[in-house]
Amino acid sequence: MRTLIIATTLCAAAAATPALAQDQQPAPPPPCQEEIYRAFDFWLGTWDVTTPDGRPAGTNVISEQENGCLLLEEWTSVSGGSGQSYNFYDPGLRKWRQVWVSGGATIDYAGGLNDDGAMVLEGEISNRNGTTAPFRGTWTVQEDGAVKQHFQQYDPETEEWNDWFVGIYKKGIRN
Fold first, then answer.
1. Helix, coil or strand: residue 8
2. Could you give the dihedral angle defined by the CA atoms of residues 49, 52, 56 and 60, in that order, rounded to the nearest 10 degrees?
3. How far is C-alpha 125 from the chain's CA centre?
4. What is the pTM of this model?
5. Residue 28's pLDDT is what?
6. CATH number of 35-171
7. Distance (Å, rounded) from C-alpha 23 to C-alpha 21?
């Protein structure tokens, strides 16, 4: 009798299994896989950063996070300063956005790829003392695979964009 009960239970379980499988929905595709979410992937990696004349400026690690929806920047300057940014495609704005924090100062700007394939973001820098200014960042892939990062701050008195930082990114030893 015990064998009959076990066999009946196993048959019932086997009969129910296909019904459960049919009711289950396939897993949704991972988020942020569309082409627009890959537009800033050229910046991913571990980088040694120099000034245009070759002097060391620091290191930067750009890693993919949140299933490809976020690029996390972790900057360390040669002088010991640091900063981090979140870089992501904002579907509400339909633009790429970066929010940078370093020593209490922030930069928040948005944009996208220009016709030359450079990532150009524009917005505002907010300093610890409460002053703000228009700010622009441009990342351009160079022929040798390096990336040129060019930051500019707008001066309303001269009505000109002034260089704030220019860095040349080359893949670091850890890549």
1. helix
2. -10
3. 19
4. 0.83
5. 86
6. 2.40.128.20
7. 5
What are 36's two structure tokens?
């627009």
Model confidence over 129-175: pLDDT tens digits? 999 999 999 999 999 999 999 999 999 999 999 999 999 999 986 55
Structure tokens belonging to residue 83: 């900063």
Phi-psi region of 66 (alpha: psi -120 to 50; beta: other; left: phi over 0): left
C-alpha 52, offset from chain centre: 24
Q: How far is CA 5 from the centre of its chain?
A: 58
Ranges of each domain in the chain: 35-171
Token readout for 43 is 């910046």
DSSP E strands, the chain: 45-50, 56-65, 70-77, 82-90, 95-102, 105-113, 119-126, 132-141, 147-155, 160-171
Give residue 24's pLDDT: 87
Q: What is the pLDDT of residue 8?
A: 44
Count of CB atoms within 10 A of residue 49's CB? 22
CA 126 to chain centre: 21
